[in-house]
Amino acid sequence: MKMIKYFLLAFLLVLPGYSASRILSTMSSTGNGVQFNIVKSADQYAYYIQIRYKGIGPEGIAVMPVQGGVVIKSTRQQRQQQITSYGAVQYYSSGQAMQSRVGIPPDGDLSRLGRNDKPGLIELVIPRKRR
């Protein structure tokens, strides 16, 4: 049932201004209170990746071009405070990370990767190389 839900989400999802794009793949990642739903689509001009997220802000999501695709990585820092039996305050910092890789075909020009952040959504555009 969950897979059908994500398939329908991907099928109904249309990128603003890119109504002719077709869905190539969808994936979901969940961990440590962070959730990603990633949809990759394409048209004759570019590849498009939509990252819907919960449990983290856009500043905590890094997108890095790598050979043959992009890596989407979240880092969530938490700082905790503890008072010892002597009344001293101690701070602990912990980080949690989640990572997904999205492949892009060889005609995708990763050097021209574009990113647009919106609340709950990051849109990536990877233009196709000119022939």
Number of domains: 1
> Which class do the helix and strand fractions yield?
mainly beta
Strand segment tally = 8
What fold name stands as the CATH topology?
Immunoglobulin-like
Helix content: under 10%
- The end-to-end span amounts to 42 Å
CATH class value = Mainly Beta
SSE string: HEEEEEEEE
- Which value, in Å, is the CA radius of gyration? 18 Å
How much of the residues is beta strand, in percent?
over 45%
Task: Provide mean pLDDT, rounded.
Answer: 76
Biggest sheet layout: 5 strands, antiparallel
* Low-pLDDT ranges: 1-19
Inertia-based shape: elongated
As an assembly, this protein is single chain
CATH architecture: Sandwich
Strand order of the largest sheet: 1-2-3-8-7
Q: How many separate helices?
A: 1
